[in-house]
Write a structure and sequence with these properties.
Layout (H helix, E strand, L loop, with lengths): L17 H10 L2 E9 L5 E9 L3 E6 L6 E5 L2 E5 L8 E4 L5 H5 L11 E7 L2 E7 L8 E7 L4 E8 L5 E6 L3 E2 L10 H9 L2
Antiparallel strand pairs: 1-2, 1-11, 1-12, 2-3, 3-4, 4-5, 5-6, 7-8, 8-9, 9-10, 10-11
Length: 192
């Protein structure tokens, strides 16, 4: 009875549902992780990422890089110590990061997710603001069992890509408001 002795093939990783990915992001209230960033020009930087949802993120770059990016109070500020100018600021809503920092992430919203596929052991989605696709997109890469965000790729309105690869995320805990306070950071840097 050779027909009954069929060998079981290893199960392929299942694509994680948009509902599960939304649940994961909505439950991610605070997190801290080391990150590696691959910039559109091919340069690589590292640092520490702090997330406090909704609406707040901080990218602290490792020395010798003294740049800092903060999202808070609906704004994103880019601090460049080489410049004598105040930080460059723009609305968080005009960036693809706003999709995962929203108070209520709903990846099932019409036309938000433009690609959802399983690739080896990962699930990859590409999302954009359905009302403003010109703001760019974010590709999120997750692993399963348990669901975990591993990296993202932001494509801006000019088509340039920035990849952020996350180390192990330490979730939960308290992150101070001052980490995400753009005005406080600007005044600290002005005093230097």
């Amino acid at each position: 009875m050779a027909a009954l002795t069929i060998m079981a093939a290893p199960a392929a990783a299942e694509k994680i549902s948009l509902k599960e990915l939304s649940r994961y992001l909505n439950n991610l209230s605070t997190a801290k992780a080391e990150f590696t960033q691959i910039n559109s020009d091919g340069t690589i930087t590292t640092g520490t990422l702090f997330i406090r949802r909704p609406g707040r993120v901080r990218f602290e770059y490792a020395p010798p890089n003294k740049n800092l990016v903060i999202a808070g109070s609906g704004q994103v500020a880019v601090f460049d110590p080489k410049s004598n100018l105040p930080p460059e600021q723009y609305p968080l809503a005009r960036t693809p990061l706003s999709i995962i920092l929203a108070a209520n992430v709903d990846l099932g919203r019409a036309k938000m997710v433009v690609s959802h596929k399983q690739d080896g052991n990962t699930t990859r989605i590409r999302a954009q603001d359905p009302e403003h696709p010109e703001y760019g997109s974010i590709e999120l890469i997750f692993t399963a069992n348990p669901t975990e965000l591993r990296q993202w790729v932001i494509r801006d309105d000019s088509g340039a890509e920035t990849t952020v690869i996350l180390g192990e995320m330490k979730k939960g805990g308290k992150l101070s408001d001052s980490l995400f306070n753009i005005a406080l950071e600007a005044s600290k840097r002005k005093g230097k």
